[in-house]
Amino acid sequence: MTSIGTGYDLSASTYSPDGRIFQVEYANKAVENSGTAIGLRVKDGVVLAVEKIIHSKLLMPESNKRILTIDKHIGYTSSGLLADGRQLANRARDESQSSRDFYREPPTLKTIVNRLSLFIQAYTLYSSVRPFGCTSLLASVDKHGPGLYVIEPSGISLGHHGAAVGKGRQLAKTELEKLKLNELSMRQAVYEAARIIHLVHDDAKEKDFELEMSWIGAETNNIHLPVPKDLFEDADKQARDALLEDMED
Amino acid sequence: MDHHPTNWGRPRDDRVDPYGTFPIHARPRPKEDAFGDAVKHTQQPIVTGSSVIGLKYKDGVMLAADNLASYGSLARYKDVQRLHPVGTSTILGAGGDMSDFQYIQHTLDSLIIEEFTYDDGNKLGPTEIYQYLSRIMYNRRSKMNPLWNSLVVGGIKSDGESFLGYVDLLGTTYQSPTIATGFGSYIAQPLLRNAVDEHPEPLTEEEALSIIQKCMKTLFYRDARSLNKYQVAKVTAEGVTISDPIEAPTVWGFAEGIRGYGAQTQ
Lengths: 249, 266
Description:
The structure holds two protein chains of two kinds. Chain A has helices spanning about 20-30, 80-105, 110-120, 170-180, 185-200, 230-249, and strands at about 35-40, 45-55, 65-70, 75-80, 135-140, 145-150, 155-160, 160-165, 210-215, 225.
């Protein structure tokens, strides 16, 4: 880390001589070390999946959800500092509601993503604040069809066909690239998502994890909902079996 | 004029002294809105809906309201839906000012979305919606700025029991197995009570629908602010359904003999 000791990394309001803002890069480090989150935008919907690391056996199963709902038609998940993610989700909810109050229609995903990006970007400008230590995935089906956006701590937001953030992002991205996302159905995407999360999870390094999946699209009447239990369990089981088979080979 | 000693010799507006150099913290402040006294509140409804009727029956609750929104005595809008589903087990019917009703719809929709985003498995049922609505209505009338509506809330509670309640612009509430608002409280209420109260068994869906139809038809005959085009909503264990607009068969042959309506004989 060439930045250490130079003094250019002490504040988000200071550039380094080569034009970088180290505080923002450190925020990205916080993301790189947390549980993987992926999103698949397919022809009739979007699927979100996260690898929720369980750091204590005392935690209740299915507690501390990492996939949140912003509006009826907008799903959210983040990788990085969970508390920061929750803060952003609440902000996105407020944005969505105020857009509804103003225009009396469901906001498009792009509207919310733009607003949220501006908010995140504002935290890269001042020495008195710290940039958000999380990368957000937003999924929706709005009047423009299915959408999947990623917002980084710098405030940059980009639309994706498939997205992966967090610890296992490299492997997950290569797996996503192999898929023909535009041809998959939502159901198929759920199986692929479960498979990828199981695949990228590193048993040796991390303790236990919990798979969390949600979807929105034709199957859910364009409402963001958790993947139904029977489908979830089947996808989870198939993913585990596939992993075991690979190991035997 | 503010005669408080701490304000002697000071400008009337606090904004002139933004640093608050004065030693007493609780110094009386000028009114925030200098024109507050000039604000005018709703004193009459403008575009209005007429009666809403509702009754409990065997499988749940049935509500009906016609599709008319009047502008004074003018039948201005004839395709207005005055029944609004709230969540998955509640229906709201409204008479009175239609713009206030649209505001209420938006408020309730926002509430339902907020509840949905919590994703905690909780659902707002008719009792919660009814309580929330009654607080809004009472709060607004206490500000002398009422939402000019009479509302009927119907639905199925989480324990499977059916619910039917009334709340109006004054924040008045009551619950009853039959409810009719506005002109309907004179015309339809007796018909509904005859059908429900006198009946030893709860009404079946067919019976409920037929009494609703009878009420709506009678209202159309007698209420000059009504329309022979109405919708019926029901809430059962299966959820909320709102029918397409229905017309009741009417007979007007007798009208020919009425002086001032038919051909003039005199």
